Amino acid sequence: MNPVPPDSPPTTRRDDLAAVVRDASLPYSAADADGENLLETTRRFIQTLESARIPHVLVGGLAVLQYVDGRNTRDIDLIIAVEDLARLPDFLLEEQNDWFATGTSGPLRVDLLFTANPLFAEVRDHHSEERMFLDARLRCATPQGIILLKLFALPSLYRQGNIDRAALYETDILQLLHHHPADREQLLDTLTPHMIPSDIRSLRDVLKDIASRLDHNRRF
Question: Please, which residues have CB within 8 angstroms of residue 162's CB and are 6 or more apart in sequence?
């Protein structure tokens, strides 16, 4: 594993991320004890990934928050190999297909992306780094890795009519590209072997629109 990069978030930033896990789980009027239970479950879950040597990559909302300020999230999203599914701590499986699974570990919702999907395997192997989160080391997708996953998901979200989630993903991409610029054509070249040509054309338009918005913001 690579060492923790020198620009890893300081302890105060990790405390902020812990608060996101706690606060996102409940409405503001809920008991603090329930939020702390979720936080402790999340901490144990992440520490077990390391102690059990389960190869993994953190993706999704918590990964985004490693690099930019953003929305609250109550899930933990991981890339793992399907054969490691049975080794996850106290994991109750709800749904599973060739590429994805969802379930829970106590109060914690867990969404899984399997390395059987070649793009997910590529993010694991080439677009991840070791970071600290909740006092444990874990692999986290890099900004480029997160952007690739968000772009990969967008066409399906639009086809399903899931406009709210698609809008959130586009906002995540915009924020990540603002703080961590990446070459648009390089992103599309990476995605091309894994997606149909019409989806790549649509994503080119999405990235062009995001680039225009970023250029507009820089003028102010």
Answer: none
